[in-house]
Amino acid sequence: MKAIILAAGRGSRLGEMGNDRPKCLVEFAGRPLIEHQLAALRRAGVDQIALVRGYRAEMLQIPATASFDNVRWAETNMVVSLSCADSWLQEETVIVSYGDIFYGSSVIEKLIESPGDLVISYDRNWRSLWSRRFVDPLTDAETFRVDEAGILIEIGGKTDNYASIEGQYMGLLKFTPTSWRWVRDTLSQLPASVVDRLDMTGLLRRLLEKKKVISTVSTVEHWGEIDDAGDLALYERMHETGELVLE
């Protein structure tokens, strides 16, 4: 099994801890964030991992990993970074991970085992964590709804209603070559300026509009995304007190 970590971004909102390095190299719980990701992926049986690099690419020289470079990282969004790994995505099934998250191996195993062509993971217990990250969780949270079979119905919209948020998308996905063809076809129909700005939830919404089936796997395992210094401080406290257990 292959995996791609989207590690092109700069951690400027992390202040001194992240301004001079790729965001995935910010230290969390005694190790660079990317080391937690690599460990979880390998425990789940992923044996080939590639990094999509951008800002300070020379700092991401990690043994036993391949690399793709988004030389336009500063002017493009995540979908363009993912497209830099097109050769892998066309060949076989690939797990895709954002570079600013941490997670355990069990959610990766669920993604691998899921039979869908495009599968995303989500946290059912998102609200307890978001309530600690934000005074009002609805200022950051987006719509997320699935049907009884776990097929995605809606993602990425703004809402003031908790009933429209059945979980939090985690930034972990699985693409098969079939679903990557869906993506390539979709991007080919868009102006380059739109593709450059497209984020992952925007891509998923466009695929839903085309009636593509996006499967989901849910989890209540410990995970988190690190957007800024406040997030990092929160997760460090949770780890120190034993609230957050890292594998």
Give a nutshell description of this structure.
This protein is α/β, with parallel strands linked by helices and 247 residues long. It has helices at residues 33-43, 78-83, 86-91, 105-113, 126-133, 177-188, 192-197, 200-209, 229-240, and strands at residues 2-7, 27-28, 31-32, 48-53, 66-69, 94-98, 101-102, 118-123, 144-146, 152-155, 168-175, 215-219, 224-225. It has a seven-stranded mixed beta sheet with strand order 5-4-1-6-11-8-12. The chain has a two-stranded antiparallel sheet with strand order 2-3. Strands 7-13 form a two-stranded antiparallel sheet.
Give structural notes.
With 247 residues, this protein is α/β, with parallel strands linked by helices. The protein has a single domain (2-240), classed as Spore Coat Polysaccharide Biosynthesis Protein SpsA, Chain A (Alpha-Beta Complex), CATH 3.90.550. Helices cover 32% and strands 22% of the residues. The chain contains 9 helices and 13 strands. It has helices spanning 33-43, 78-83, 86-91, 105-113, 126-133, 177-188, 192-197, 200-209, 229-240; strands at 2-7, 27-28, 31-32, 48-53, 66-69, 94-98, 101-102, 118-123, 144-146, 152-155, 168-175, 215-219, 224-225. A 7-stranded mixed beta sheet has the order 5-4-1-6-11-8-12. A two-stranded antiparallel sheet has the order 2-3. A two-stranded antiparallel sheet has the order 7-13. A hairpin with a 2-residue loop joins strand 2 (27-28) and strand 3 (31-32). The two termini are 20 Å apart.
